[in-house]
Structures are given as structure tokens and as C-alpha cells.
Amino acid sequence: MCRMTPLWLIIFLLFISPSMMAQPAAEKSKWNVIAPYPIDITWNKTSNLIFPYPVISVDRGTSNVLVQKAKHVGNILQLKASGKNADTTNLSVVTSDGKFYSFLVAYNDNPTHLNLMFQNDSVSKTEALPIGENEAMIREGISMVQRAKPFMQKAIREQGIGLKLCGIYLYHDICFFKVAINNQSAFKFDLENVRLNIKDKHKAKRSASQEKEIPILASSKEVVEGNAKGVLVIPTRVFSIAPKQRLLITLLEKDEGRSIHLTIDASRLLKVHAIK
User: Fold this and answer.
1) CA neighbor of 250 nearest in space, from 275, 202, 214, 225
2) ∠ CA 113-55-163 to the nearest 5 degrees?
3) Do 193 and 252 contact (CB within 8 A), yes or no?
4) Model-level pTM greater than 0.70?
5) For the segment 159-208, what is each residue's pLDDT rounded down to a tens digit?
6) Are the CB atoms for 43 and 80 separated by under 8 Å?
7) pLDDT digits (tens, 9 = 90+) for 11-54
8) Domain 135-202+211-274: homologous superfamily in CATH
9) Of 33, 97, 209, 234, whose CA is between 20 and 30 Å from 146?
10) What highest taxon heads this organism's lineage (predicted)?
11) What is the pLDDT of residue 35?
12) What is the dihedral of CA 170, 176, 179, 180, to 10 degrees?
């Protein structure tokens, strides 16, 4: 004998079913999938990626891809395979206008295209910097910080290079570190890269190292001649740091030369000066 379904259960299912079926679609709409752009590289030829704005961050999936910025040009990345038949990997790039670019890098003995120029909407990308930094604002801030009066005296000297933190400045929610470079050696100091890392002040021998890299919004390749001085301004987004942590500024010389380290305690970072 067939049993009848209670009327209250039918009404309940009529009300709840549409919402349950709509839930996966609503959840799906929260995600924006970025399809990587396919590019080919080889071991004996250089591939060039030309972006509309300077590159401020690069991350490669594996060391099979050799990556460098073109000399004296901030918006060109040069790629080459580390050897023949390198495995396929990915490459992530962030430019100074706040765009994120995703690439799928594959090995090819004879790539069809060696020079790729990307316009503003020619490759999969998304906003990466939510506070709206732009190149013009960063350059304006750098110019103002270069003229600003120093108010800090944190200094070190390593391998004939003296570094002094002259001040930390805030301009339109962008943080600027002003560092004076004093080359006391006879050899020029050809700066290739700058890194900012937050590290634990005291770390137990068996504990995991808590380290975080702070992205730099604009790259600078200063050359300080022997027995000469220079000034470096490092722009970053505003970041937080715990009292028991410290900021490590590392200057890396070209061709794996000298590396100079300047350590800044968290208490000093609180003395930032706003500029207008």
C-alpha cells in the first residue's frame, strides 16, 4: 500500500530546495580563476617579456627557469631554460600598477616567439595591490623622501660598505626607507637587488624560523663608485611587525658579490614620520 507524504514535508522541501541548489552557484561566484598564459623557452636563446609597467615581484615555480630583469630597464623580464628538456613550470609576475600576471612556462628547442609585449588587457591578470599604489605616486614619494631631513642614525659597516638608516617616512599609505650608502672601498658597489625580511629576534635552535619577505614596490639599481656616497629609497606597503621581531634590509651586489645587512628593531619602526 502506498503511503502519502505529509503535506508539511512537501511545503518544507519547496522552500528549502531552491536555496540549497543556489548555494553552490553563489559560492562559485566568489572565485575568479586566472588562466596562465603559455610561453616557450629554450636553453640557448633568451625570451623577453615586455610589460606596460615596471616589474616589482617575480616568483618561479622551479629553478629550471632562469629569470632576470633587463639591465637599466624595469619592465622587461628575460627568461632562459637552465638546461635542455626542462620540466614545465609556472611563473608569477607583479607590476607596479598592481597587476598580477600568471604564466605556464614550457621547454621548446625552437620557440616560435622570443619577444612578447603585453598591453594592459592582453594577458590573464588581476589586481594584486588593494591600496591602489601607482607608479606616479611612488616616484613622487621617493622624490620627497630624498629631500626630507634625516632623523635616524642606525648604521653598520660591512666589507667596506657603510649603511645608515636616515629615516622611515609615510606618504599616502606607502612606507619609504631612506638608506645612505657610504662606499669606503676602492671598488664600485653595483647594487643588483634589495630585500626586506621580517625575522624573529631570538630563535630557539630547534624551532622553525618565522620569516616573511616584504614586497618592494619599486626596484632600484644604484651604482656607488669607490670612495663615494649614495642614497637609496625603498618603498613598501605598510606592514605590521611584532615586538620580538626585527626587519632585515639586505643589499645584494651584482654577480653574487657583496651582501650588506642592516637590522632594524620593531621599536624603531614605530618612529615613522608622515610627509605631505
Assistant:
1) 214
2) 140
3) yes
4) no
5) 999 999 999 999 988 899 999 999 999 999 999 889 999 998 765 444 44
6) yes
7) 444 444 444 444 444 444 455 667 888 999 999 999 989 888 88
8) Immunoglobulins (2.60.40.10)
9) 97
10) Bacteria
11) 80
12) -70
Beta-sheet pairing, 273-274 with 161-171: parallel
Confidence bin at 99 (pLDDT 50/70/90): confident
* Residue-level pLDDT at 9: 47
Per residue, the 3-state secondary structure of 66-79, as one string, reads EEEECCCCCCEEEE
Indicate the fold that domain 37-127 takes in CATH: Immunoglobulin-like (2.60.40)
pLDDT, the chain, mean: 80
The residues that bridge with 199 in the sheet, in sequence order, are 211, 246
**Which three cell numbers, joined as nine digits, stand for 104?**
605556464
Beta strands 99-107 and 37-41: pairing type? parallel
